[in-house]
């Protein structure tokens, strides 16, 4: 998935194959990166070491310093579980490693990194920052990268990543962690190359097989046959685990095979009956099939399985969207209003963003959409409790991009230009490629509205995971009498199929919006 969820359950021993990445979890949830050289009580601040520290190696290859071998085993288990999307248990084991060795920089770094995908733990991150000063060079490379990514210090993260890859060019764990980050940064070409290198080193490394399944369906030129082939290899590696079946269920839905999607989600739930990603996946697929009554039942079952507010509110959000799919927008807006109040009561930052953004996008009038988006933007302008800085930056940019889109399509040039200016400043400040892509596509919407279709295509093409941007890009190619490019873009759009707010807008109103923008250009 685009923005990686954090929701998984079940502890696995390190010797067992884990569940793989990028399919949604069950507990807890192409531009190019340029080269450059459940919160828990945190232990008290460490005191200086008074004796030599034993050297260890994670997975026999990554040198670290730990005071006992039990901590090493726990960290290996935690990292394995993180790679396989078992985020809750990864956090538990990494935390236990810090109990075993309260002076380990890598233990605190892995704990905070895994927690950043579910419930961020700033105290663990601060301990990692304090302890890394005394860490040996090889450990310091990995710890600094984990810290830089969490702090949204992208220039430093790029440098640390390249240093890591230079030092450990054939370590599958380093390759995977950095490839996953590159994927999230929308540097798809480099992510693919690194992940394919992992498979060359270890043809049966499950997280890499799973990530390649998503790379080949959602990026570049979609190749659904290749994507499904990787996921079948993944399932063959882990026949008794639910996540491979969950991944197949999701990717088959992208490819339009709804019956196959249902079968694989059901197969996942036969393995683990409360694997919430597959339960919600059933609701998602049934929504796209138009089976709204059963979709609601599936979402209710998913909500009953939830072990945290983020999963619970997501299932309820998807259920609220069913009203829009079945043509009852007023009921849908009332449901979203109620759900947003619940997310605020629970102080769940991610759910508040998801619901608030969907509510704004689905508001009845453009003036109301812009008003709600601007209010949401203001809540994301500074640090948000419970949300990581990288996620806050991306969420903010997504909101402002939509302000620019709507303003452009409705001829409100000054509002669009203001939004674009704010995005440009943020892209320069954060050096985040996702933020930069939002800036570029925002410019593309305005250029389209102004009739500069050629320039618009260059800008819109930078935002390949926004169905709305792809829809507008295809329309721009049509205006340029380039049917081949338009067809290729629509083929790419086809494999973004999911019951999201953007897909709903593409399905129901994007064509109308494109015509409005074309009229504004003339």
Number of strands: 2
Radius of gyration: 23 Å
Shape: globular
SSE order, one letter for each helix or strand: EEHHHHHHHHHHHHHHHHHHHHHHHHHH
Structural class: mainly alpha
Low-confidence stretches: 1-31, 35-45, 47-52, 513-517
For the biggest β-sheet, the strand order reads 1-2
Mean pLDDT metric = 87
Largest β sheet strand count, sense and barrel closure: 2 strands, antiparallel
Helical fraction equals 55-70%
Residue fraction in strands: under 5%
Q: Give the N-to-C terminal Cα separation.
A: 38 Å
The DSSP helix count reads 26
Question: Can you characterise this structure?
Answer:
This protein has 522 residues and is mainly alpha-helical. Helices cover 69% and strands 2% of the residues. Strand 1 and strand 2 form a beta hairpin. The longest helix has 21 residues. The two termini are 38 Å apart.
Summary keywords:
single chain, 522 residues, mainly alpha, two-stranded antiparallel ribbon, 2 strands, disordered N terminus
Helix and strand layout, with pairings?
Layout: E1 55-58, E2 62-65, H1 69-83, H2 87-100, H3 105-115, H4 122-131, H5 137-150, H6 154-167, H7 172-184, H8 188-201, H9 206-218, H10 224-237, H11 242-254, H12 258-271, H13 276-289, H14 292-305, H15 309-325, H16 329-346, H17 349-361, H18 366-379, H19 389-409, H20 413-430, H21 433-449, H22 453-460, H23 467-479, H24 483-494, H25 501-508, H26 510-521
Antiparallel strand pairs: 1-2
Helix pairs in contact: 1-2, 1-3, 2-3, 3-4, 3-5, 5-6, 7-8, 8-9, 9-10, 9-11, 10-11, 11-12, 11-13, 12-13, 13-14, 13-15, 14-15, 15-16, 15-17, 16-17, 17-18, 18-19, 19-20, 19-21, 20-21, 21-22, 22-23, 23-24
């Amino acid at each position: 998935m685009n923005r990686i969820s954090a929701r998984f359950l079940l502890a696995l021993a390190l010797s067992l194959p884990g569940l793989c990445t990028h399919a949604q979890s069950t507990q807890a949830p192409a531009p190019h990166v340029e080269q450059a050289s459940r919160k828990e009580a945190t232990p008290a601040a460490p005191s200086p070491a008074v004796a030599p520290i034993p050297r260890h190696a994670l997975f026999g290859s990554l040198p670290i310093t730990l005071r006992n071998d039990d901590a090493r085993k726990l960290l290996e288990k935690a990292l394995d579980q993180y790679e396989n999307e078992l985020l809750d248990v990864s956090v538990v084991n990494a935390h236990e490693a810090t109990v075993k060795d309260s002076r380990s920089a890598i233990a605190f770094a892995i704990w905070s990194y895994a927690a950043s995908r579910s419930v961020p733990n700033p105290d663990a991150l601060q301990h990692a920052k304090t302890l890394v000063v005394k860490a040996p060079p090889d450990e310091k490379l990995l710890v600094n990268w984990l810290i830089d990514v969490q702090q949204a210090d992208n220039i430093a993260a790029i440098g640390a990543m390249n240093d890591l890859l230079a030092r450990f060019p054939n370590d599958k764990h380093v390759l995977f962690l950095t490839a996953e980050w590159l994927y999230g940064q929308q540097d798809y070409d480099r992510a693919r190359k690194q992940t394919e290198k992992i498979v060359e080193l270890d043809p049966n490394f499950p997280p890499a097989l799973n990530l390649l399944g998503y790379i080949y369906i959602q990026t570049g030129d979609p190749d659904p046959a290749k994507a499904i082939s990787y996921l079948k290899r993944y399932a063959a590696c882990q026949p008794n685990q639910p996540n491979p079946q969950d991944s197949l269920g999701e990717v088959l839905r992208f490819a339009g095979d709804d019956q196959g999607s249902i079968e694989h989600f059901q197969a996942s739930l036969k393995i683990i009956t409360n694997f919430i990603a597959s339960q919600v996946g059933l609701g998602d697929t049934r929504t796209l099939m138009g089976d709204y009554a059963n979709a609601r039942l599936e979402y209710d079952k998913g909500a009953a399985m939830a072990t945290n507010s983020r999963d619970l509110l997501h299932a309820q959000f998807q259920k609220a969207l069913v009203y829009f799919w079945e043509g009852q927008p007023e009921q849908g807006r009332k449901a979203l209003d109620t759900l947003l109040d619940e997310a605020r009561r629970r102080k769940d930052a991610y759910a508040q963003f998801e619901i608030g953004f969907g509510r704004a996008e689905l508001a009845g009038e453009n003036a109301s959409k812009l008003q709600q988006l601007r209010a949401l933007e203001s809540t994301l302008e500074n640090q948000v409790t419970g949300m990581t800085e990288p996620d806050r930056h991306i969420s903010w940019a997504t909101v402002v991009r939509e302000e620019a889109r709507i303003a452009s399509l409705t001829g409100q040039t000054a509002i669009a230009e203001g939004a674009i200016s704010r995005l440009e400043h943020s892209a320069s400040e954060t050096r985040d490629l996702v933020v930069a892509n939002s800036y570029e596509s925002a410019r593309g919407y305005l250029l389209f509205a102004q009739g500069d279709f050629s320039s618009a295509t260059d800008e819109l093409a930078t935002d390949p995971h926004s169905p709305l941007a792809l829809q507008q890009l295809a329309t721009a190619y049509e205006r340029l009498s380039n049917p081949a490019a338009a067809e290729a873009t629509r083929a790419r759009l086809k494999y973004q199929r999911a019951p999201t707010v953007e897909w709903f807008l593409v399905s129901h109103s994007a064509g109308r919006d494109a015509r409005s923008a074309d009229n504004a250009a003339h």
